[in-house]
Structures are given as C-alpha cells and as structure tokens.
Amino acid sequence: MFKGIVIQKDDQGYRAQISDLNESDLPAGDVRVKVHYSTLNYKDGLAITGKGPVVRSFPMVPGIDLTGEVVESQSPEFKIGDMVLLNGWGVGESHWGGLAQQARLKSEWLIPLPKAFTAKQSLAIGTAGYTAMLCVMALQKHGLKPEDGEVLVTGAAGGVGSVALMLLKKLGFTLVASSGRPEESAYLKKLGAQEVIDRSTLSAPGKPLAKERWAAVVDSVGSHTLANACAAVKAEGAVAACGLAQGMDFPATVAPFILRGVTLYGINSVTVPKERRVAAWNQLAQLCDLKQLEEVAHEISLAEAIPMASKLMEGKVRGRVIVDVNR
Length: 327
Description:
This protein is an alpha/beta fold. It has two domains: 148 residues, Medium-chain alcohol dehydrogenases, catalytic domain (Quinone Oxidoreductase, Chain A, domain 1), CATH 3.90.180; 140 residues, 3-Layer(aba) Sandwich (Rossmann fold). 31% of the residues lie in helices and 28% in strands. Strands 3, 4, 5, 6, 7, 14 and 15 form a seven-stranded mixed β-sheet that branches. A six-stranded parallel β-sheet has the order 10-9-8-11-12-13, with helices on both faces. Strands 1-2 form a two-stranded antiparallel sheet. Strand 12, helix 7 and strand 13 form a beta-alpha-beta unit. Helix 2 crosses helix 3 and helix 2 packs across helix 8.
C-alpha cells in the first residue's frame, strides 16, 4: 500500500483527496518508480481544484513532474536503483502522475536525474524551471544578446517567471518583471529584475502597436498581457510564450509580426524530444545558482498539496512548491 492524491469525478461531484493505493492500481508502463518528490505547477492547481478541464480520465493522480528511484524495470535503458526525472508527457492529465509515493511510467518519458542536482534540487527547478529554460533556449536560438535591450518577464513571481529571471540574469540580460503582487518586488529584484512593473499595465486591452521597448519577452500569462507584450517588442525581437494564466485567448493583431518582424515562439514543454530535454537540463546545470534555488522554492508535505493548490489558483504562491510525497 502507498498514498497518493486521487481525483474523482462521479455522481458525488469533482473532488481530490489523499487515498491508499495498491501497486496493482497503477497504470501500464515499463518502469516503476518510488517517487521522492513532485511539485505543484499551475496545471496541477487546475487539476486538483477542478478549475480547468485538465484531467482527461478518472480516477487520476495529479502531478506533472516527479523524481525518484527505479524499483522495477522492463526497459534496457534503466535499472533498479537508477534515479530518474520526468516532466510532462501528459502525466497527471491522462496518465497517473507524481503526487503519489509510486508511479508506473513509460521509459521513453524518463531521463536520468542530472548529476548536478539532488532529487530535491531538480524539482526546485521542476517543469516550471525546465519550461523557463526552453523559453531561454528559444531566445538564444533567435540570437538575442544582452546589448539588444530589456527583456520582459511576465507572471514573474510564479514558477516559470522566477526561474526565467534567474537564468536570464546569469546570462547578463537587463530584466523587467511584471507582477500583480507588489509585495514581491524585493524578491523579484533579488532574482535579477532591475525594475518591477504592475501587471495592470499589460493586462487590459491595448493598441495593435505600442512604443518599442522590449528586446524580448518570456510570457506565462497569455491573453491581453501577451498581446500587449508583443505590441511593444522592438523590431526583429522575439517573444517566448508558454502559459495562459490570464487566459487562452490572444486578442492581438498581426501588426507586430508584419510591421516589426517580431517572432512569436510557442513553447511546448510536454512532448519535447528526449535530446532537447537533456540539452535543457544540461544548460540548467550550468546556469542555476543552487543557493538562489532555495529562495525560489519551498517544500510541503503530500497532505498540504490539496489546500496549497487553491492558494496557487488564487495567485498567492511565490516561486516553486516542492512536494515531499513521503511525509
């Protein structure tokens, strides 16, 4: 027997609760993992609270990432005792995820735990930090350089935004953080923001084109915020879009793209090929300040994850939330 958060949807309604599970309950897969840590991401908040149609089948164990030890393997790629890491692949949505003490998974979804990190440190970064790295890689591919000008990071106090600030600061960029929480200004400046602006300056309907300011943008908010960010990007600049905290809509025009040559990069962290995942984690190993990670992340128990999910959806959670599923 082991414990996990189980989401049910039936005649009694939609609910998430801690349940006792058996190994036989686990879905199909060729690797079974004793989970050490999972996290709470925005998508997990949607799943646990039921505020978004994230869960594709029921019952479901949420948790879109995990790290742990292989305890059973039919894959030649992994052996018993190996430490592994998983981000995405529909885990926690259509396949039982990491917010349980065991998981059975497909080996192609897993990568070895990077040697630069402990299990806990890897999930201080987690899917949010890995997504931030993919955003940064897109801007690097675009050829962005520090001398090109300011980079805007929206949703900056969240998991993606916090790590994006940390990574871009290490790379020498001048950063502006957008947040709806003015009380987090000192935190954001410690991570690397030179200026903090209120999200209200971006979240209302705006003009098709605004005064050029941003060399690039990392956006985890979507909707009007993304549209306004694109409208103020400099000629030949770039935007990496990876989230929809404000909404899935994109109320914009083509003006920034055809009049200024702005490039919009869509960042899909869920089904990235293994080679690019490994490359992203290799860069994270080079760029992450392990002491700063302690500022970005805090740890909770499995039992605390359900009430914390509600706080996350209310925008009351800073940075990364690591879940020790074994306490």
